[in-house]
């Protein structure tokens, strides 16, 4: 049975706004693949925002969600999905659930045969993300309360790992939970400053290929192997 029980007709009220946003993301080159285009068109961003932020759902910028956290701008969600080269059936770890928007986009691409684990350290956000994803039908996402810098060893290995918060370096704990041939994407740098988006590809058990993909700005990763 499909793990995506989302009613495609239930969240269409703001579809024209979503389509306009996707058109802009395509024109700027943030969206490159049909799978990411489809995901960005299908995920109702307004369902993953506090009520006071819902009017701004389809403005391409990060928005506050409380607890000092933000929901990423749509273009950054598209960038993450494109860089990771996500495929149906992959097992993925997300560090930092927030309100669940990024997870929903990834879940669309992973589809019925894939599984996303999302770990969130703030209990209030964990509860909201879990409810948002359940309400919108993303049953292929399991939200876990805990320290994201430690990952989820019992669910490893993962084909892809990505961080939605900035760390001083990519934690060894997460690198160890990545399958050979897998990719890990993380903003790396100082707190309250711009960071560099780093992609690591696991070549062998102890060998990684590292690429710097440019400057970004994320909230800090708090945890044993974060800040």
Structural account:
With 227 residues, the chain is an alpha/beta fold. It has one domain (15-216): Rossmann fold (3-Layer(aba) Sandwich). It has 6 helices and 9 strands, in the order ααββαβαβαββαβββ. It has a 7-stranded mixed sheet with strand order 5-4-3-6-7-8-9. A two-stranded antiparallel ribbon has the order 1-2. Helix 2 crosses helix 4. It is globular.
- Biggest beta-sheet profile: 7 strands, mixed
Task: Kindly give the count of domains.
Answer: 1
β-strand percent reads 25-35%
Tell me, rounded to a whole number, the average pLDDT: 94
Tell me roughly what share of residues is in helical segments. 25-40%
**Approximate shape:** globular
Give the end-to-end Cα distance, rounded to a whole number of Å.
41 Å
The count of β-strands is 9
Give the CATH level 1 class. Alpha Beta
Instruction: Kindly name the structural category.
Output: alpha/beta
Give the strand order of the largest sheet, numbering strands 1, 2, ... along the chain. 5-4-3-6-7-8-9
- The named CATH superfamily: Vaccinia Virus protein VP39
Order of helices and strands: HHEEHEHEHEEHEEE
If helices are DSSP runs of H or I spanning 4 or more residues, what is the number of helices? Answer: 6
Radius of gyration: 16 Å
pLDDT < 50 stretches: none
CATH names the topology as: Rossmann fold
Overall CATH architecture: 3-Layer(aba) Sandwich
